[in-house]
Design a protein that fits this description.
single chain; mainly alpha; Arc Repressor Mutant, subunit A; two-stranded parallel sheet; 45% helix; globular; DNA-binding
Length: 140
DNA sequence: TCCTTGACTCAGA
DNA sequence: CTCTGAGCCAAGG
């Protein structure tokens, strides 16, 4: 019924690396959504290449971020990435307990519907934050 | 080689 | 608020 169709970024490895770089900037106690991360990658891509962004980046970016998280290195705070509804999305069937515990340990609270209030906990980096830290959004 | 299986989001009904 | 459809690929068994 819901054939989760996928597509992939032109360069999966490079895309994943950029996603991880961004996720590493999320401070403890804050969260970001897949879509938010995807937008940052798009911004970086546009700035780095000057080329227009293919529509697929907008349509599939969030899922590519999910794919990147599925293979992230140990130093990436994967638990701080949640879905746009403020809920934890985990791989099919697996519990979200671990991710929730990690977030609660950082001070993130969940409501009765297992949701995080993004108005409070969303990571809202300013352009300055991104450029002053070490996100090499511009490829090289 | 064929078949299954995905850490998503948004608009519209 | 809930539910559906669209987006249309690649790694692993």
């Amino acid at each position: 019924m819901n054939p989760q169709r996928y597509t992939s970024p032109p360069d999966r490895a490079a895309y994943n690396a950029r996603v991880w770089d961004i996720v590493r900037q999320i401070p403890p106690g804050k969260v970001a959504t897949y879509g938010q991360i995807a937008s940052m990658v798009i911004t970086a891509q546009a700035a780095g290449t000057g080329d227009p962004i293919p529509a697929a980046y907008h349509a599939w970016g969030a899922r590519w971020v999910g794919g990147a998280m599925a293979a992230c290195p140990a130093d990436v705070p994967w638990q701080r990435v949640i879905n746009s509804q403020g809920k934890i999305s985990l791989r099919k069937g697996k519990g979200s307990t671990e991710q929730r515990c990690l977030l609660e340990a950082e001070g993130v609270e969940f409501d009765a519907h297992d949701r995080v209030d993004l108005r409070i906990y969303a990571w809202l980096p300013s352009p300055q934050d991104l450029s002053s830290k070490r996100i090499h959004l511009l490829s090289d």
